[in-house]
Design goal:
Elements: H1 2-42, H2 52-139
């Protein structure tokens, strides 16, 4: 029984190793493909007399494609950034206007509070005077 379990473990290990080797081969194949695919971008080709115009055309097409891609990516990013800047500026203006409105409201409430305090003092003083006058009439 122990021999059978050990055999199954060895078989699983072999399967895992084979899968790992296969994955490594695929990864290496992808790396080689990418290296070969972009290698011409890193090194300028050595043109032969009959392929010089074709190589120049290919290089120019590649540069144009890269420039086009960069412009599309950068253009989209710049448009988004400009849109965000415009939104932030409009929010800043709104907050500034709201801040001024709140200051005006607070100023109005402060003036109203002062007027209410003056009115309350005047009423309290008048009530006190009336009370004294009423007490004087009763005692008199």
């Amino acid at each position: 029984m122990n021999v059978i379990n050990r055999a199954e473990q060895i078989e699983e290990t072999v399967d895992i190793d084979e899968a790992h080797d296969a994955a490594s081969e695929v990864e290496e194949g992808i790396r080689d493909f990418v290296r070969k695919d972009i290698a011409y971008l890193r090194r300028p080709p050595i043109p032969s007399p009959e392929t010089a115009p074709v190589a120049d055309a290919n290089a120019e097409a590649t540069v144009n494609n890269v420039n086009s891609l960069i412009q599309r990516v950068a253009g989209t990013s710049l448009a988004e950034i400009e849109k965000l800047i415009a939104e932030l500026e409009s929010l800043r203006d709104l907050l500034h206007a709201e801040g001024q409105r709140v200051q005006r409201e607070i100023s109005g409430y402060a003036q109203l509070s002062q007027a209410a305090m003056k009115s309350t003092r005047m009423i309290a003083d008048n009530v006190t005077q009336w009370k004294r006058a009423a007490d004087g009439l009763r005692n008199g």
